[in-house]
Amino acid sequence: MFSALFRSFQKSLFFFMFLFSSAHFLWADTINAGDTAWVMISTALVFIMIPGLGFFYGGLVRKKNFLSILMQCFMALGFMSLQWACLGYSLSFGTDIAGFIGGLDFLFLKNVDSLALPSTGIPHNLFMAFQGMFAIITPAIIIGAFAERIKFLSFCLFSLIWGTLVYDSLAHWVWGGGFLHKMGTLDFAGGTVVHINAGIAALILTIMIGKRKGYPKHISSPHNLPFAVLGAALLWFGWFGFNAGSALAANGIASNAFVTTQIAAATSGCIWALIEWIRDKHPTMLGSITGAVAGLAAITPAAGFVSPMNAIWIGIGAAIICYIFVTIIKPKLGYDDTLDAFGIHGIGGIWGAIATGLWASTEVNSAGANGFFYGNPELLWIQFKATAVTILYIVPVTWIIAKLIDKTVGLRTSESSERIGLDLSEHRETAYTTLD
What is the DSSP string of 38-69? Predict the structure, then answer.
């Protein structure tokens, strides 16, 4: 009898072990270790872009404002991370409401766990974290427009409100199942959501906040160009995660985005330097890194949809168009976009969105659509419409937010604070010390 009971117990034990093993393997098959590792690395790469942006912008301003730039970038990492976790992710990727905004399904990360996100091989909370890095860097890009003359409190308030009302809405429109996504808009990694968005907002704030004192005749050159070069290099490095990570998998689409990112940035940096060489008789370090960043902004919407050789054309276009805006159109119009956030990110993003409509190819990404040069002019028209709608939304909402902040706490720092520098007037610190 005891032997019969033992055999029965043994069979039951084996049965439950089998069930556990099956459940384990089912879960293991759902979470793809390689894809998860790649997206985790990509999230860290995008993270490093934010201090990289701080050094890029910080090296270009006067030394009395260096720490204020770093402070704005670093604090954006803090409060925008909290905004994203508590509210922003849900508004961007929650259940679609009328094609305009996400619901509150994921409010305070409710229902966001470590199980696989449907249709991907990565955990849901990792997808949230990856997307959160984009929500952080977008308002940080705008810093370049009002550098050296905005109150720190105003920057924090603007970023939080603008991130909620503008960034989260656009992220939903394009990536969260909103109306631009349904219209067929292609934006692989943020040409519309990040660069056009930040660039247009930068232009509005530049106009509203006014020129720096002494602009343009009495504004000194970049105080530490090597820091700006370091920042540009960190941006370029992080951009591989920005673009290739947007495939959400370690696959051929990611590798294509990786390669097109490198080629477009390299092309644009070289072409910008060449233009300077021809026009001014000497290429500059500042021009080279500016061109590279323009190429990175332009390839962002197209990275997973175009071939590496067509990325060359996107890089050429980015260098020529952005150079014209930064060196010719901006001086003629007279606006003071301190670090050319509009001229590089806004114009570069617009060109990249349109270029996606020209060179997108299903030979590269079967999930996309063919562009104009591959027999489908309709995609080019869709990209034009998406760009126009995006701009028409950003302009009034950004203006209203900035106006409300200006009427309450004030956007611009005082004349004496601007003269002293924001490092001392806003933070009571200096980037550089001297020995007595």
Answer: HHHHHHHHHHHHHHHHHHHHHHHS-GGGHHHH
DSSP string for residues in 302-358: TTTTS-HHHHHHHHHHHHHHHHHIIIIIHHHHT---TT-HIIIIIHHHHHHHHHHHH
Q: Which two three-digit tokens encode residue 396?
A: 């009034």
Mean pLDDT of 373-399: 97
Query: Where is 97: in which H helix or E strand?
Result: strand 96-97
What residues does 293 pair with on adjacent strands?
A: none
CB 275 within 8 A of CB 319: yes
CATH superfamily of 33-427: Ammonium transporter AmtB like domains (1.10.3430.10)
359 pLDDT exceeds 70? yes
pTM of the model: 0.92
Kindly report, residue by residue over 323-340, the tens digit of the pLDDT.
999 999 999 999 999 999
- Quick one: what percent of the chain has pLDDT higher than 90? 88
First to last CA, the chain: 95
Q: How confident is the model at residue 28 (pLDDT cuts 50, 70, 90)?
A: very low
Task: Count the Cβ atoms, other than its own, within 10 Å of residue 321.
Answer: 17
Domain extents for the chain? 33-427
CA neighbor of 64 nearest in space, from 376, 434, 435, 425: 425
